Structure formats: structure tokens, C-alpha cells
Amino acid sequence: MDITNTPTPGVLTKEDTIEELNDVTRLLIDSQRGYEAACEECDDSFALRREFQERAQRRSQYIKEVQNYVRSLGGEPSTHGTMRGAVHRGWMNFANIFRDDEEGAIKSVENGESFLANRIEDALHDGQLDSTGEALMRKCCDDAKASARFFDMLEDAV
């Protein structure tokens, strides 16, 4: 048995960092697409349209930053979302809910953002990220938490 190729427990590898970043990137892509879908479902007079647009643009920027960092590590960045993620399923239901139930739509967004923030926190705590990856994920996590709080407050107001 050749143990030189066996990873040492507790030792971070670039592959670990790349894998973790790509896992979160897929969820960020789901979130961005969800915000874009929400914009399509809103008419121009709906007050949240601009909010959805701004959040989609921020997610797009975060995705690019993480993808660029993955490339700098020598990896191939994720460029697609995941069909299995709870964020994606929540967003898929958004269009149907949105037409009939504003409160339900807002709750769907808040749930998706909370899921995303929790997943990023898991990534931050599992020890698979280097310092640059952690910094990128903290920025994404802070934004997801802020979004969840915003939509939670909005839900309370509706």
C-alpha cells in the first residue's frame, strides 16, 4: 500500500477547498436563478422587483468571485445549480405561489435564504476551506443571512 498518496487526516488540500466551494456555488446559482425567476413573475409595479434584481446581481457577482478563485486553485468551477437543493425546490415553487399568495412567496424566499446561509455556515465550520475560501464564503453567508432577515421582517409586515 502506497501511503504517500493517502491524505493525512486534518490536512487541508486544494481539492477539498475546490469541492466545498463548488458545492456552495451550485446553491448560489440556484439562488440567483430564483431571484431572476421572481423578477419575471413580478409586474413592473411590484415593490420587490428591484429588491429581487439587486439580490440576483449580487449573487451573480459572488458566483463569479468564487468561480475565479476555484480556477486560481487549478480547479474547474461549477457553472450550474443543483436540482436536489432545497433552495432550488423552494424557488421552483415560487412562481406558482407568487401569483396567489404574497406572504407565501416571501416565506419561500426567506426559507431558501436561511437554507443557503446554514449550508455556507456548515462549509465554514467543516475545515475544508483555506483562508481565501473562508473569506469568500463569509461574504456570501453574510449576504444570505441579511436576505433571510429582510424577507423575514417583510413577511411579518405582510
Structure in a nutshell:
With 158 residues, the chain is mostly helical.
What do you see in this structure?
The protein is mostly helical and 158 residues long. It contains five helices and no strands. The radius of gyration is 17 Å and the shape is elongated. The N terminus is likely disordered.
pLDDT averaged over residues: 81
Domain count: the total is 1
- For the record, what is the CATH homologous superfamily label? Ferritin, core subunit, four-helix bundle
Going by helix content, strand content and strand pairing, the class is mainly alpha
- CATH arch. level architecture: Up-down Bundle
Radius of gyration: 17 Å
CATH class: Mainly Alpha
Regions with pLDDT < 50 over 5+ consecutive residues? Answer: 1-7
> What percentage of residues falls in helices of 4 or more residues?
over 70%
Q: In DSSP terms, counting alpha (H) and pi (I) runs of 4 or more, how many helices? A: 5
CATH topology: Ferritin
Count the strands? 0
β-strand percent reads under 5%
Distance between the termini: 63 Å
Shape: elongated
Order of helices and strands: HHHHH
How is the main sheet built?
none
